[in-house]
Amino acid sequence: MNKLKKALLVLFSLLLIIVLGIYFYLLSTKPQYEGEVAIKNISTTTEVYFDDYGIPHIYANSEKDAMTVLGYVHAQDRLWQMELLRRIAPGRLAELFGNKVSKTDMFFAGLGIDENSEKTITQIDKNSETYKLTLAYLDGINQYLENGKTPVEFTLLGLEKKPFTLKDVYNIFGFMSFSFAMAQKTDPLMTDIRNNLGSEYLKDFGLDGSFGTVQLKSYDGKPSDYAEISRTVNALLDNATVQPFIGSNSWIIGSQKTKNGKVIFANDPHISFAQPCTWFEAHIATPNYEIYGYYLAGTPFPLLGHNRDYAYGLTMFENDDIDLFQEENNPKNPNQYKYKNEYKNYTVRKKTIKVKDSSDIILKVKESIHGPIMNDVMNTITSEKPIAMSWIYTQEKNEILDAVYHLSHSKNVDDFRKSIKLVHAPGLNIMYGDAKNNISWTASGKLYKLNKSINPNFILNGSNGIDDQKEFLPFAKNPSALNPSWNYLYSANNQTEAIDGYLYPGYYLPKDRAERIDNLLAPKNNWTKADVEKMIVDNTSSRSSFVVSTILPNIELKNKSKNFETAYAILSKWNGSNNENDIAPTIYNKFIYHYLKNTFEDELGKKDFEALLATHIVKQIIEPQMANENSIWWDNIATKDKKENRSTILTKSLEEAIFSLENQLGKDVNSWTWNKVHKLEHVHPIGQVKLFHSFFNVGKFDIAGSNEVINNLAFTYTDNKEHIVKAGPSTRRIIDFSDVENSVSILPTGNSGNPMSKHYSDQAEMYNKGLFRKMKMKKKEILETSTKLVFILKK
């Protein structure tokens, strides 16, 4: 017995030593928020004050010193995230995560972002402030790499720290730009619907020319499974371990409509959720320059920002800047393709994908004049015909780093608007407001027209020399507005008005958010910051009640259960709100899934139906298709002996929704509150492993909001018990130029990406409740609530 006790004591002691060792090791990885750090390449002492939410306020003698220190403090809180982001575009995730992400690496390596970045660097002006300040920022990151603490993720994965380069910066911007695009998710699926089912099935999508002058083009030959491209791209982006952009809201209220007679600016870019969250906040102040900015990991200039003079932000324009082309190989030589009645040689790029604990993958990517052949980088494509991806980002001069520098260094509204011309891709709605009461919206992107006979919503003909002819439009034709007479501007990823009679093609979202924003802004002329704080977390859908008004009269009520009648009554009284204790959104969203499934899956099949659910277009189609009593989609082609109609499908869908909710939430309809099913969890890549789940992940939380409300906490329609929020406001920011020092913001989790920092998740509960914190700019107030980290010149 004594021996057993001794053995247990030894075992307990060993476990205690191990636990304490892990604990003290983790403590050693915490970011340093006070004290003194000696670094090279600063001209004089630079002070950083970390406020009560971990936002660094950098006071430097020069902007170069500030950028060096910014790189250092950004790295100490977000080095792991920087490492992830710089690896995506060149296809280097498999070095960390192994073969499970090798397909993602193949895809991104094939796009040519890395090659475009390399080419851009050779053309950069080395005398420009953009270049000099970017190098200072990179110097700060690399000094932290050399002398700072090693993030726990690096240790767990056995990752070697290697210097960051200018190419890494461009690659990060390249991935961001690709994540804005939608054609690769949508065009192949629409092409399959057209080829396999016929043009009649496209009328409800508005892609057959019935909503405009565009005419369909058709191909001869056996239909191919092009939708596999859509399915694969969706899966690759979902598994990329970082956050793609998906939408956004922004509005600017002119001085004539505010109580204090000054502009109020609001912005909440919608990005997929993950941990760490997307933005790192930092405030820089020098004798000649000041900016409070939101930075992507590994990038030197803020994509969102403000100072005492102006504020700017962005939403996705959703224009079409990717075209897919079906090439025609030479039947006698697979290394050639047909173009304008002659054969041209493919060029070939060779890339090596290194895979952790496995052999390298040698990737050979053919390229036509249109771009890389997707068949080479997506081994899921079953079509024998090569599909090329033409992306404006890799085909035009890349000036995005200069553009972002100038956005954050503008002198006035005219200077700001001119700098947008440098952004050839992605398409963005860039919003601006200033202390002089100017308000502005400008769409970025190098826009172009195709031949009138071409519909860019489908895979185009690569061989005829017609489908690829582009008429590039002057920047002056980009949609924009400056100080409009109605005294407010907004953007919610919706279609812009025609310019010179031409509607820019794109993948726009439904009018729900835009309509709600407009309806709230238009009648009110005494807006305050507090009013805007309520508006930016508004949970009411402007269109759901209209959809319900279409649904209910077409549902058969005879011989239905008590729960069916109760659910019907709840929907009939619903005003479109999506608050945590509401019951109607639980019923409505479950119904919408079953309606979509019963309407589209019989024709599309399970895989293509799931691909449809992942596109923007599925949100666009719900209202018009449901209103179309004669839609061809109502009939279930699997039931040969009868023809279903709208009433049949809608009644069946509500019955199935109620049956599903009874099984998942119980028989009491009044207990089916939205908070029980609408959930948000911020998942770290390593937190996907169960052992590390609670250490790295933040949440899971009950949360309000929904698809296409202003508080756009979006999910894919599903029959699962929970609607897991995939994306939403990556920040909510409100700048009031009547009191710019007290402007407010919030992040989904926290400003640090280090799990041992107290700022890793200290904003999460506030975010979920729709609360805000100050974006402090007054030095006196900052000093009162901050710790101080002093950077001195290393001797």
**Relative strand content:** 15-25%
Q: Characterize the overall form.
A: globular
N-C termini distance: 63 Å
Uncertain regions: pLDDT < 50 for 5+ in a row? 208-224
Overall number of strands: 32
Oligomeric state of the chains present here:
single chain
The pLDDT mean sits at: 88
- Order of strands, main sheet, comes to 1-32-2-3-6-7-8-9-18-19-23
- How much helical structure, as a percent, in the residues? 25-40%
Radius of gyration: 27 Å
Largest sheet: 11 strands, mixed
The number of helical segments is: 25
Q: Return the structural class.
A: alpha+beta
Brief description of this entry?
With 795 residues, the protein is α+β, with helices and mostly antiparallel strands. It is built from 25 helices and 32 strands.
Structural account:
The protein is an alpha+beta fold. The radius of gyration is 27 Å and the shape is globular. 35% of the residues lie in helices and 19% in strands. It has an eleven-stranded mixed beta sheet with strand order 1-32-2-3-6-7-8-9-18-19-23, covered by helices on one side.
